[in-house]
Write a structure and sequence with these properties.
The structure is a homodimer of 207-residue chains.
Chain A: H1 5-22, E1 28-29, H2 31-38, H3 42-50, E2 62-63, H4 64-75, E3 81-86, H5 90-96, E4 106-113, E5 122-123, E6 126-130, H6 134-141, E7 145-148, H7 152-164, E8 170-173, E9 186-189, H8 192-206
Parallel strand pairs in A: 3-4, 3-7, 4-6, 7-8, 8-9
Antiparallel strand pairs in A: 1-2, 5-6
Helix pairs in contact in A: 1-4, 2-3
Chain A binds a DNA duplex (22 and 22 nucleotides) through residues 4-7, 30-32, 40-44, 46-47, 49-50, 54-62.
Chain lengths: 207, 207
Amino acid sequence: MKVAEPTIERIVHYYRLACRLENSDQKIISSQEIAERLNIKAAQVRKDLSYFGEIGKRGVGYKISELREHLEIVLDSPKRWKVALIGVGNLGMALIGHSDFYNEKFELTALFEIDQKKIGQKFFGIECYDAKEISRILREKEVEVIILAVPDKAAQRCVDAAVASGCLKGVLSFTSAQVTLPENIAYQRVDILAALEKLFFALKETE
Amino acid sequence: MKVAEPTIERIVHYYRLACRLENSDQKIISSQEIAERLNIKAAQVRKDLSYFGEIGKRGVGYKISELREHLEIVLDSPKRWKVALIGVGNLGMALIGHSDFYNEKFELTALFEIDQKKIGQKFFGIECYDAKEISRILREKEVEVIILAVPDKAAQRCVDAAVASGCLKGVLSFTSAQVTLPENIAYQRVDILAALEKLFFALKETE
DNA sequence: TTTTGTGAAGTTTTTCACAGCG
DNA sequence: CGCTGTGAAAAACTTCACAAAA
């Protein structure tokens, strides 16, 4: 069974909602109510949820605790990934300093920087290494995922070093730079500047 | 002529590429080359670009300087928007401290915080106000766009205050919280935690 | 009766394939 | 001839509408 990419994004939202409601009096929720809260259509909710089994009860709705458990399994990770953050500037620091960032699916294992003042230090308990060592240290520590929070110019170089380690499997990139990497490596980009541009474009259209 | 949302995102990427290449020896680029560099199909590039007029030359390709100029017009803003940042925590600070963040389409006009230590201070030359004053100050300063970088719990409250100002037209949100706002207000969300989850989901699938 | 799960229909977005222009 | 621009086809995604279950 193949699941569309937009569905996954929504599953994350359903999961969050279920977590939030689990600590309330409400025990049951309908696709209609989920839809209203997330600003989508009820049929979309039902279709998305049905990809992962029959979670609801006809005539009743979705039991919130079961929904939460079920979605937790859907989003569950087969292992605790080792993750390295490359770039401990303002953004990198914002990420690792934010408790919501952490979850049981990964363990932050190493930080990398080019700033000599930061190399050798620890931030939030994690050692910061010289970016020149990316390849060696990812291999030694068996890090399979990197989070790229470096200036655009450095992005490709860092990715290349990470690929060279031989263990890289996934990249979460915050640079707006275009990076090239092997097909078999999972890639997610968070493009803040593009989001800004899209907002201004939308604003222009509604003027 | 109506332009699809995914097209706009790609237009931003074409524009960036054109800017980058304008400072190189290369004068002309084909849809094929653009496509390769951005990891998409050449037909997609041509279709996207054709929405905004005949920019290319048949048998030749796209003149990079013309392409850049043309896309600049497409992405151009009719005015310089006044923008307020709500939440001067790590993420907010990362944004306003990053020079790439700024462009001629907007002017950062006010900051808001609940942390008393920050209120009254200036950061990067911008005054930081009490979040309780959002409504009044947005109105006084005619701020039409807010950037939300507050904890999930505070998100809806801040948005409501901004809407109450009567001048709000757009929101760029970094919270993972779901916020409700009037139909006529443009909304862009950058959901970092959802991106992380999507990456882990993709990793699981390729295992 | 109510609300889910789901084929089928509809819509949006991407890709193909080729006419047309330089 | 080479590469764009673009209708038409294909694919992806969403919505409808209703049978079926509680």
